Amino acid sequence: MAGTSPSARLRDFGYELPQIPQPAGSYVPAVRTGTLIFTAGQLPFRDGELAFTGKVGDMVSVDDAREAARLCALNALAAAAAETDGLAGIARVLKVTGYVASVPGFNGQPQVLNGASELIGEVFGEAGLHARSAVGVAELPLGAPVEVEIVVEAG
For the purposes of burial, counting CB atoms within 10 Å of the CB of 73, is it exposed (0-12), middle (13-18) or buried (19 or more)? Predict the structure, then answer.
């Protein structure tokens, strides 16, 4: 797989870069300043629908939350790619911040966010190694279990 493009690797893992979800408020999906691209928080939309709802540790299993984090990462990558020459225009993923709607006492947020981090690593290899924050929260927009935002460097 070495030497293949990020888009090809994404397809190899059974994913396609989705259409960018439309903002639900007064913001844009991503902003570029110089070589840095910051995305807005992305929810686990699949084909325009929220794929998962509920809190992790109650209605949403850790495995489902990991898949939700992967979907969030895909949506964040789509937003970042739209600000550059597609996925090939992303030189490096610098930071991933994830929020996990959690029931009291749930502290597996890092395991949930591994879904996003692993997808990014699969797609970008060493250029996908990133800093990360995994934060437990009481609620997320639309009842989503996970929200992810990324910072990337354009090449």
Answer: buried
Question: Considering the domain 6-17+33-154, what is its CATH architecture?
Answer: 2-Layer Sandwich (3.30)
Phi first, then psi, for residue 20 (nearest 5°) are: -70, 125
Domain-wise residue ranges, the chain? 6-17+33-154
CA distance linking residue 18 with residue 147, whole number of Å: 16
Give the bridge partners for 56, in sequence order.
60, 102
> What average pLDDT does range 42-62 have in this prediction?
96
Bridge-based pairing of strands 49-50 and 45-46 is: antiparallel
What pTM did the predictor assign? Answer: 0.95
DSSP summary character for residue 28? -
Asked if 91 and 154 count as a contact pair (C-beta separation under 8 A), the reply is: yes
